[in-house]
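Trying the structure run again after the queue cleared.
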Amino acid sequence: MKKFNLPDMPDSCGIVYFKKGLQTLFIDIASDIRRYMEITISNADHDSILSELISSSDSLDWKATESMFAANAEMKIFLSKNNPEYQQQIKLKKDYCYLAIDYFTVPYLKTRSTTEEDFQYIGPFKSQFLIHDIILSFMELFTTPACENEDFPCNLYKEKKCSAYCLQVDKTKLYNDISRFYLSDCTDLLKPIITKVDELNHHLKFQEALYYDNYLNVIKKYLDKLDFFKTVKTLCGEIVISNKKYIIKNGFLTKIIDVDNNQIIAEFQDAHPEYKENELLAIDKANHDELWLNYQILKNKRN
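Done. Tokens:
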């Protein structure tokens, strides 16, 4: 495996360029440039396309930026004018996966790498382990489904950690609970548990408080992502940063304007992804990172 001088790389966010001479073979953005390269080189040991990219590259260039949003904007400008050889081949988001809801078959909540099956989908999330943590957290606090496999009833029922949805012929409770906890903002339902955590801390029961607090934090992060999935497809707005106006339409960055002279710096083709009926809370993996950055920048502006 080819060696790059990792210590020289900054640990700040920015853009990474894999190059062969003057030609850019691949470009990406990173929240930590040095860490990004460490992970990429490690993953290349079991990813033939990544290994080929690194072997083909004779240099690595990078540019630190003030934010991930700025990095993504610069990458979009570059890709609107260039077509790096490996840009479409490398699937760095292949570990992203969806939370799939199946109202008819145990397990009712599953992880899936695509949205091809006839389930209702939420996501993508960055790993199946994150989805597992979400399912576990809701189960621990609200006894919602967390089926271990296709066999039922499972140990969770025997341990009285689950409401035995698999044994109920009438699936009304299953529908209602999934809707209430997974498809809606259940912040109000967390308030009694937050109060309980405060009381436990007050009585110096820190370990027990931490038990609940860990699950609460996972659910709060899930609710942030749920709001993102619900709103980003129609998200529109603009923001001015360093004398540049960024215009966002339907979640995507569509135009950058120089405020001083009112000149268009870059304009991108409007994206119109097609979504199936069961993808109301799902977006394409390839678009996730840009949409998330645009959602955050406009959300912070509103706040």
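The two ends are 46 Å apart (CA to CA). Worth checking whether this holds up in the mutant runs.
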